[in-house]
Amino acid sequence: MPDVRLASPQGKWILLTTVLGSSMAMLDSTVVNVALPSIGRDLDASLAALQWTVNAYMVTLAGLILLGGSLGDRYGRRKVFVVGVVWFAAASLLCGFAPSPVVLIAARALQGVGGALLTPGSLALIQASFHPDDRSRAVGVWSGFGGIGAAIGPFLGGWLVTGPGWRWVFLLNVPLALLCVPVALRHVPESSDEKAHGRFDVLGAVLGALALALLTYALIEARGGSVAVPVTAVLGVVAAVAFVHVERHRAEPMLPPGIFASRQFTAVNLVTLCVYAAFGGFFFLTALQLQVVAGYSPLAAGTALLPTTVLMLLFSSRSGALADRTGPRLPLTVGPLLCAVAMLLMLRVGEGADYLTDVLPAVLVMGAGMVTLVAPLTATVLASVDTSRAGLASGINNAAARAAGLLAVAALPLLAGMGPEAYRSAPAFDAAFDRAMPICSAVLVAGAALAFALVRRPAPGCRRPECRTHGNVTAPPLEGDRPPG
């Protein structure tokens, strides 16, 4: 039975290690959007290259995150976590010195592999190390610091882009890793799951990531009209069908189809797809809109969205408690509708937009919507499956959110009619942005309708989330399997 106490020196070292590791991945998921215009100018990149700068990371992360958690259970959670941190730092170094968009995109894909190893590992280390009496408090401290990292990410990214340059958005990960790895090796106990056995579903993971990559390519490159577009689209569908076939016939699949026998679990994941598709498109385009059209500096653009994360940090736990009393149906309906209103309010943000009167109202409404829905969404995911499968259910929900975001970043510029050089022209980008926000709003309304029609109150006595404080806008929080004791 794990016996490390939170107040002990070792407990503090473990928390420091896990916070540093998870912060690396969380910072990169939030700060890169702010750096995109500068990356585009410096590397002479097209809009498609900027989309891939975001999506290459998300493809490998979303496709491999479930496999990353399984590797830690089998081979040692500390070992896999450390490998993930070193891998992530090495890929970040390559990003920081990338001489061209192609190299940057390839390095971002490698970053996603590292993120898939360290992201589930940071939470697993806490749950496997701390005494049962301290475990929930430790997870709470970890998620709280992670939320603070998410809050300062865009501000820090904007400051780095404005000051030393966009390359330091990636190079910053190297000193974090140099601090994290020695502490992990010295102070974090190794742990694994003695019940973990059988073959890894590597084929399923590869097919899932390949399907996402091919479909993303087809959406991003569709504007060019190349013959490769329909070919990759068909291959992407074939890979997706093959993924489903493999998962249905594997003895130990990465994504067991039987888990979707729960109608509640299926429903809340459909809501997740709608909600995080809209969020992915919104945060990608808004960071560009504020700089290209409104004329904000990278620092101002990064800081502009800070109230959203601050509201989530302050009120997400209270939102979860309220949802326990009212049931998830109401917050999962109202939350997306508030976010839909926020995206329509963003239509006020144009050339010379004033922050207090044009940007802040939309950001505050957006934050209120995310506060309302994120904690109940996570709770409903956990409550809709057997307790023994809660970690798997959370991982699937997290991966679904990331996949939805990357497909939205690929598809939304196409649907809004953005040309390959749109971000270089303020009038052209502004017009496309005005077409994109109603699309995001409509997707959120669809998510609200699904929640109202399909989500029901969970059975009493079901599992509740341990991560009650949350500030990440790119995916819902991960919840791991709790060790016995």
TrEMBL record:
A Pfam match: MFS_1
Coiled coil region boundaries: none
SUPFAM superfamilies: MFS general substrate transporter
Compartment(s): Cell membrane
Region (Disordered): 463-485
Main location (coarse class): membrane
Protein name stated in the entry: MFS transporter
Species: Streptomyces albidocamelliae
